[in-house]
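task queued by scheduler; priority normal; single chain, no ligands, no partner chains; default sampling; output format set to structure tokens
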Amino acid sequence: MITQSSKSSITAAALLILIYIATWRFWPVYALILFIPDLVIIVYYTSIFFTDVIYWIQNRKDDKPFMPFCISFAALMVIFYLPPIHSNKSYPKGAYNLFARMKDKSACDLYLQYYLAGSGFLATDVNAVYLTDLKNFRVYLGTYKEGYEKINVESDGHIIIAIKTSTEYVNSYWTDPIVLDKKGFVLSELIKNKPFE
């Protein structure tokens, strides 16, 4: 027999998973519209989650009082294993050749692919950046907010370095940008291992 607590947990878990999928799929375009439903469902899910914990404690002598909690926790695990929002490649912004930046012009062409990963009514766009040669590999470099963050990629034809910087909270006229992240790749290993993200 399904208890009322289990029904509430199933409803909250299903809503949480559905809104995550909708957000993952449509967030860049409908961020303002999805913000309110996201917030309402997260608050609803959180209240049900804590209600499930209390139900488990109060009814520990009953048969399987932990089931509502397990349902709620399973929803978190499903979301944990779903693709992250930045991996949504439905909104390409363009691809740019890095050939001009390379010191060794005989090396293979490299491209940066940009995808819109987030947007808002009063917020700047968030872009996801991938490095690719369009044939063998594509690797995720990160996301950056337009306006004060950027990802610079340099290569000598063999080693590729991606540096994410930010000018937020610094005076860019007097101070160098803050380095937030740095990634390095060996081109021959990328071509050999063929990672595709």
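post-processing summary
- Residues 4-58 form the longest helix (55 residues).
- Residues 4-82 form one domain.
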